[in-house]
Design a protein that fits this description.
β2, α3 (60-69) and β3 (81-85) form a beta-alpha-beta unit. The protein is elongated and about 75 Å long. It folds into 2 domains: 9-221, P-loop containing nucleotide triphosphate hydrolases (Rossmann fold); 228-388, P-loop containing nucleotide triphosphate hydrolases (Rossmann fold, 3-Layer(aba) Sandwich), CATH 3.40.50. The protein has helices at residues 9-12, 35-46, 60-69, 108-120, 130-137, 141-154, 170-179, 241-248, 288-297, 313-324, 345-352, 371-383, and strands at 22-27, 51-55, 81-85, 99-100, 124-127, 158-164, 182-189, 196-204, 213-219, 223-234, 251-253, 256-257, 260-261, 265-271, 274-280, 300-306, 330-335, 360-362. The strands form 2 sheets. The protein has a 16-stranded mixed beta sheet that branches. By secondary structure, the chain is of the alpha/beta class.
């Protein structure tokens, strides 16, 4: 398997991209999506593979500067990275790229160069903008793309296409979908204003069932980062919510009074390849309107309980029902498992009458035991749900 380089995407794809396959990033016009192909290419350069970047919209030097902007030093890979320049001839400019397409408006002029490159090695061939090639060469370009894909398959190469989803004919879109092994939608949330960006699998023909969606943001440096904008942390008072938020967070803020929180906890998490913002609510019943308000916009829920206080379980169950009504991915965090009289997971499930579908994770938030395991489990639930974007 070849890595996509996109956070969490390989887990959606069953471990990555098989050799000889193609992947198309189907990008909504208002969304910053062309970085996806770049990030896939750079990840594979890091792992020692040969890479090819075909540019049709910018001078190769601009592309190199874009890599640098995201903190990716491509200069150290030397001949491992080849640029095919299909732009300079359009504007009558000189080019120092290894390969120059002299007539970018003629799709046939791409064929020999792609064939030569692919037959030399098992390369990762990234098309900076397939939509630009179609704009330049017309719909007949799709027949050539289909032949390139066969070439990639025969030579164990990988074809990576960025395709901006402009209002092409349905025939063009349908045909592109048919000839690609995988299609990843890169879209925006919102209509007139993009409030967030997400990616999700539309197709991966090596999987029996392809599913997975996740929001993202773009960092400079860093590139595409998976992003969960709001995770709710709730539970009865004094269950350890503030400690859980602090233990999980890279940075956090909370306001305490008389030992228990009477205002929101807020934390920011940077864990492996994902970032998230978490919000903890007070446990007292008078603050339930806050719980309902945050649950309306949350993408997942941690319900924190004190494993030593079964008398608080009815309140926890009531809070659980309020969040379950929203259909949110959730897990129960059985906190204070380090204390001698803490109930076991089985005892907690029995007393709270929780179905097996609701996972209970044992934690000791003070010592950070189990907190990141709980986070990973919740993220996996979010990824596989409709709340992932």
């Amino acid at each position: 398997m070849i890595p996509s380089g996109i956070p969490r995407l390989d887990s959606f794809l069953g471990g990555g991209i098989p050799k000889g396959k193609t992947i198309m990033y189907l990008i909504q016009p208002e969304v910053e999506g062309e970085i996806f192909g770049m990030q896939t290419l750079y990840k594979n350069l890091e792992e020692g593979r040969k890479g090819v970047f075909i540019t049709t919209k910018s001078d190769p030097q601009i592309i190199k500067e874009n890599f640098e902007k995201y903190g990716w030093d491509i200069s150290k890979y030397g001949d491992k990275l080849i640029f095919v320049d299909a732009y300079s001839s359009l504007i009558g400019s000189e080019s120092d790229a290894q390969y120059l397409i002299k007539n970018p408006n003629d799709i046939n002029s791409y064929d020999c160069i792609i064939k030569e490159i692919v037959e030399e090695s098992e390369a990762i061939v990234t098309f900076g903008s397939l939509s630009s090639i179609i704009d330049l060469c017309g719909d007949d370009a799709i027949k050539h793309v289909e032949e390139w894909n066969k070439m990639f398959n025969a030579n164990n190469a990988i074809g990576v296409y960025n395709f901006t989803n402009w209002p092409y004919s349905e025939e063009v879109k349908t045909k592109l979908n048919e000839i690609m092994n995988a299609v990843i939608r890169v879209g925006g949330i919102g209509e007139r204003v993009i409030l967030g960006q997400y990616y999700g699998i539309l197709k991966a023909d090596w999987l029996e069932k392809a599913k997975g969606n996740l929001m993202f943001k773009i960092a400079e440096p860093g590139g595409v980062k998976a992003f969960i904008p709001k995770v709710l942390v709730t539970g009865p008072f004094n269950a350890g919510k503030s400690t859980f938020v602090r233990s999980l967070s890279t940075r956090s803020v909370s306001v305490d009074r008389m030992g228990t929180t009477v205002a929101l906890d807020k934390g920011h998490i940077e864990y492996e390849d994902i970032t998230a913002d978490i919000f903890g609510t007070p446990g007292q019943e008078r603050f339930d309107p806050i719980l309902k308000f945050i649950a309306n916009e949350a993408m997942g829920v941690f319900l924190i309980i004190d494993s030593t206080k079964p008398e608080s379980f009815p309140r926890a169950k009531s809070m659980l029902e309020k969040t379950r009504a929203k259909g949110l991915p959730l897990i129960v965090v059985a906190n204070k498992q380090d204390i001698k009289n803490a109930l076991s997971i089985e005892e907690i499930r029995e007393k709270m009458k929780l179905p097996e579908s609701i996972e209970i994770v044992p934690t000791d938030s003070v010592k950070k035991k189990g907190v990141f395991e709980a986070f990973e489990i919740l993220i996996n639930k979010i990824e596989r749900s409709d709340e992932g974007f």
